[in-house]
Amino acid sequence: MRMMGGAAVALVVGFASATLSTPAYAAKPVVGKKTEVTRYSTEPFDTGVDTLSATDLNGHNPVAIYAALRRPPLKDQYETTAAFEERLAAWKARPITGNVTANSKVVISTLWTPYFSKLYDADNAQMTFLFDSDYNDADGYPFLPFRLERKKLSPGRGQTAMGVKFSWTREYELAVGTRLGGLSGKSMTLSIAPEDARKVVPVLLFIGQMDPVGTYEAERNHEPTLSERWESAYWTAGWTLDVEQVWVVDGARRAILAKLCKTPHRFETCAVTSSERQDQ
């Protein structure tokens, strides 16, 4: 494992081979019309809004953020601390995408994350969103993958000492590491009629501040055994988000259903107004 920016990570990469595509809830162009659609927001996110646009729902572009943060300024031994801090501040202030900078509040949007459940109680007409207590915050940051690439390495064929022939493959995954201490076991409950509850497509918005020097890269290899015909190397890289709020949004209606806000020690439920729960 290699460390960049002081962030330590460990992630098992699965065997998916397709590049992740546009989220299912993203706005799509009308066929036959020359319409350009912005997939991601290019403005800092305002947690005070009570209506969400389609681009708000898609969040910010994690690939663009990673590309901008990948090589942060490093202090030279002949550079004074004051000079370096001035240079670092200027780097943080430069645009990443649109008006978003490293100092901006950003959103990562996902339809799924481990240990997150949606439950419905028809007798009481209540829906509960739960971050399971099985999730152990101490195990590391939950990761939100946003791109997966699989490539063949150099003419990669070889043979082990035991005579097993194999070929080389490589998987490269980009992911956002989310700092979410205190989220384990938290739930959000709201009243909703059964006919409306059936239609809910929960989208999770992770809102917070990007760590401008929190990019990382980790590598793990797999050695072939006598029964295997390949050897693979996995590279995982990405950036880190210090999460301040988690919103659950109905992706079909862009209505805000529930919120969790970070307190000094853990996340607590925040109030959602009636206007926020209406169709956007």
> What's the number of extended β-strand segments?
12
Q: Label the structural class.
A: mainly beta
Question: Element order, helices and strands?
Answer: HHHEEEEEEEHEEEEE
Poorly predicted regions: 1-36, 224-231
How far from one another are the termini?
44 Å
Mean pLDDT: 74
Cα-atom radius of gyration: 22 Å
User: How much helicity do the residues have?
Assistant: 10-25%
The shape is globular
Number of helices: 4
What is the strand content? 35-45%
> Major sheet, described briefly?
9 strands, mixed
Summarize the structure.
This protein is mostly beta strands and 280 residues long. The protein has a domain at 54-71 and 102-270. It has four helices and twelve strands.
Report on the structure:
The chain has a domain at 54-71 and 102-270. It has 4 helices and 12 strands, in the order H-H-H-E-E-E-E-E-E-E-H-E-E-E-E-E. The chain has helices spanning 54-58, 62-69, 81-93, 194-197, and strands spanning 105-110, 116-121, 126-131, 143-151, 157-159, 165-179, 187-191, 202-210, 216-222, 230-250, 255-262, 267-270. The strands form 2 sheets. Strands 1, 4, 5, 6, 8, 9, 10, 11 and 12 form a 9-stranded mixed sheet that branches. A 3-stranded antiparallel sheet has the order 2-3-7, with no helix packed on it. The longest helix is centred in the N-terminal third of the chain and has 13 residues, at 81-93.
Could you give the topology of this structure?
Layout: H1 54-58, H2 62-69, H3 81-93, E1 105-110, E2 116-121, E3 126-131, E4 143-151, E5 157-159, E6 165-179, E7 187-191, H4 194-197, E8 202-210, E9 216-222, E10 230-250, E11 255-262, E12 267-270
Parallel strand pairs: 6-10
Antiparallel strand pairs: 1-8, 2-3, 3-7, 4-6, 5-6, 8-10, 9-10, 10-11, 11-12
